[in-house]
Amino acid sequence: MTPNKSVENADSEIETAIPGTCDSGWTACWKQRTLPEKLLLSAISIIFIGFFVAMIVLVEIYLRLEDRLLTAGNKSFVVTDDVIPAGSLIGNLTREPSMCVTLECVEASARILTALDTKADPCDDMAQFACGGWLERQARTPGGKDVVLVLENLQASVDHQLKLMLESPTKPDEIKANDKVRGYFASCMADRQDQVRHASVKKAVDELGIIAAPSEWDPAQWDLTELIGKILNVNGAPLFDLVVQVDDRNTSRYVLSVTLPRQSGIVPQFHSPVPRDLLHHLDILRDKKERHRVKRQFLGMGDVQLDNHDEFPDFAIFESLNHPDPSLELHNPFLPDANFLQSIQQLSRDARASAAFRLMQDLGAFNSFSVASDYRKEESDIRRVISSVDQLLPSDRDRKLKQQSSKILNYYTVDLLQQNFGFINWPVLLRKTLGKNVPMDTTVVVHYPDILHQIQAIVNVTDPRIMHNTLLMLVVRDLALELFKAPPGMDKWSFCIQAVKGGFGEVLSGIYLQYFTPAQLENYRVKAEEMFVALKESVIEMIQQSSWPDSITKVKALSKARNLKPNLVAPSIFSNQTFLESMAAQVNIDGLDFVASTWQMYRLFRRDFFDIYSKPVDETTVTWQMLAYPMIANAFYLQHFNSMVLPLGLLHDPLFSLDTPNYLGLGTLGFIVAHEIMHGFDNSGVEFDEDGVRRNLLSPSSQQLFQQKMKCVSNQFSNAFRTEYSINGTSIVLKVDGELTLNENVADLGAIKAIVATQTRMARERGPAPNLPGLNYTHEQIMLINAAQAYCALITPQAYALILGMDEHAPPHDRVNGFMMNLPDYGRIFNCPAGTRLNPKSKCSVW
Ligand SMILES: [Zn+2]
């Protein structure tokens, strides 16, 4: 029996089962019907015929319209300049928005919908409304972290793509540099090489000097300047760092700067709002039961054997979270940046110092101290000097506030430097690092003269032998140790990608770009440029409409906005093979020895870094080699060039898609672009003119009004965002620092206005963009929801406390509600009555 046959049989069985059928002809059958049956059948027939005629008419109309559209050419398809999806013809012609049903649109709809918490009220808490569903899912995900951010996930996915590319074999047509970089990555990833790494650290430190016991010390042979010079040349900065930066007063040249000590070589370049190692320490402390186990594990860092007598920093630090200083209760219920943050950072440094001592003991560096008490005294003397230097470091908050002002620009000459800070022979140090004599009247910027004075005081009262040993131990603690193991809370592969970015950023950029065809890159550039131009136009309109600046200020601000330059996607240097080859030509990668390769890389990095000092400033070099790379998922505003950087790494889902309606991309990537543009007009940005020279845009009277506007923003954020947490059963109120976050908030306030204006203009000029399936919101609403969803973040209370103290951005939840509540159109867009939390009667506005 065939399957068809069985179907036929089944059908006929059904037919015979229907009651009232007749088998003797249609006329006879009709006569057998009752009156109601006849009426019913007539009605059905009329409806059927009517439907048939209507279909013919519709098909005719459709064919005529299609004909008109095709002859009109592509232009009529691109009414909205967005994707014209299948089935959109009739929608466009009737001037109703069409429905975008491409895969990208369906995916975007699903992502937006599943992240929502429709029970939350967008008039009260937009961040919860936009992210509640996402948060709930993240919280249920096993193996949760302290911080999960949408933006950080984007960098992680770019990094993972880089990992796969570095793990794949080098193809025959690739440049040699790619092979070297793959070798370097592999040497970082390789396990069980402790012996090799130990030997390399010993060799690297020995080249700087040996840990000297009193009997081995010859004061006549020692020179602090010489040792500091050697350490600077391997990228160490134990007492201060010497860097090259663009001169604020003349942006066509570089200037030397003496700045703060630096406590790592690779890790700080990692873009993260919260240092993972600090969170790791907080986590350790949170779970008291874990103390002992974690103590053992942590002291094993560097695979050094545990010492029973080793001291572990005081666990009482975490308890300070539970007992905020009552004297601060009135205006600041909890100050995370005060004792708590400093303590947690010191805890991390102390733990690393302990590991450094164990490592150097293991390597036999302290063998000359054969008597245990001698060793203990030596260690405690060195640790005392280390901690007095550590304690001089400003808090992250102070450092960031200073960076935002001109307070770190203290101009000295080499001569003045020598007179003020004679503990170093500066002409000699500069000759050793720059490789040439530097005239005594050369300008040197000192970022923190007070701290440099105090460092000088420490050097002056410290026994030179102890100082010498301290500097070597700082090299081990801050540079060598991190090469043994990824820092706590960071995956090894992610650390290794970071190391490659740090050492071979240019070659890695070339590898990343290989993933895209030239046509794709051009497409990205065109789309990004279109977005940049549209947003820049909106910012220009906003400045024109601002009523507070006087006419001179307005002219200057407008010319700054018009002069703003974009650096989009990636520059052409990263496809120049000769250039890429030259970047790795002098490095020899020992596939087994990550430490030795990194040390070599450090030397070359510092040499190239100091080399540029003698050259005129080249914008492409500074922008794409010193500050950003194409694979960075972040955007930047560069004050010195009045330019913004939008690297390819950011132009990906969920922030950006080439194939979704423009209001989606405006909400996410557009917001970021506008935010960066607005940094040109924040509290620091107004100090730089259209060419990036430090010349204030504001006339004195406008300056006064501008400062009132700044005050509005900083007060509002300090007062509006207080979050109550319960930690270990105690309730703690944490609040946003309006002063620290001021510039970011000002940039956000302008950005959210700019994207609404841009969307309105685009809809007016191009007609309605297509709708997204299943989303019952207006395009403006979807754009703002999408803007909020780019900042969805799951953050534990301890991470929240760290963000408040260290990050110049407000925690994402507060940040989103903060920029929404100041958007003049927010009440209209979400139908929020005036006086609701996110449509307050008094809003802050700057531009
Ligand atoms: Zn910013």
Keywords:
metalloprotease, membrane, hydrolase, 847 residues, Neutral endopeptidase, domain 2, alpha+beta, zinc, globular, 33 helices, protease, disordered N terminus
What features would you describe in this structure?
Residues 634-846 form the Peptidase M13 C-terminal domain. The protein is α+β, with helices and mostly antiparallel strands and 847 residues long. It has a domain at 208-483: Neutral endopeptidase, domain 2 (Orthogonal Bundle). The chain is 56% helix and 7% strand. The strands form 4 sheets. It has a 4-stranded mixed sheet. Strand 7 and strand 8 form a beta hairpin. Helix 13 runs antiparallel to helix 14 (339-362), helix 15 packs across helix 20 (464-480) and helix 27 packs across helix 29 (742-766). The protein starts with a helix and ends in an 18-residue tail after the last helix. Mean pLDDT is 82; it is low at 1-29, 56-95 and 288-337. It binds zinc ion. Zinc ion binds at residues 675, 679, 744, 747. Zinc ion binds next to helix 29.
Question: Strands, helices and their partners?
Answer:
Layout: H1 3-17, H2 26-32, H3 35-72, H4 89-93, H5 103-115, H6 126-140, E1 147-149, H7 150-167, H8 176-189, H9 194-208, H10 224-233, E2 241-247, E3 250-259, H11 276-286, H12 291-299, H13 316-322, H14 339-362, H15 372-390, H16 396-403, E4 410-413, H17 414-420, H18 426-434, E5 443-446, H19 449-461, H20 464-480, H21 492-514, H22 518-545, H23 551-563, E6 565-569, H24 577-584, H25 594-611, H26 619-627, E7 636-638, E8 643-647, H27 662-678, H28 700-720, E9 722-727, E10 730-735, H29 742-766, H30 779-789, E11 793-795, H31 797-806, H32 812-821, H33 826-829
Parallel strand pairs: 3-5, 6-8
Antiparallel strand pairs: 1-11, 2-3, 4-5, 7-8, 9-10
The structure holds zinc ion (ZN).
Zinc ion (ZN) binds near residues 675, 679, 744 and 747.
Family: Belongs to the peptidase M13 family.
Keywords: Hydrolase, Membrane, Metal-binding, Metalloprotease, Protease, Transmembrane, Transmembrane helix, Zinc
Organism: Daphnia magna
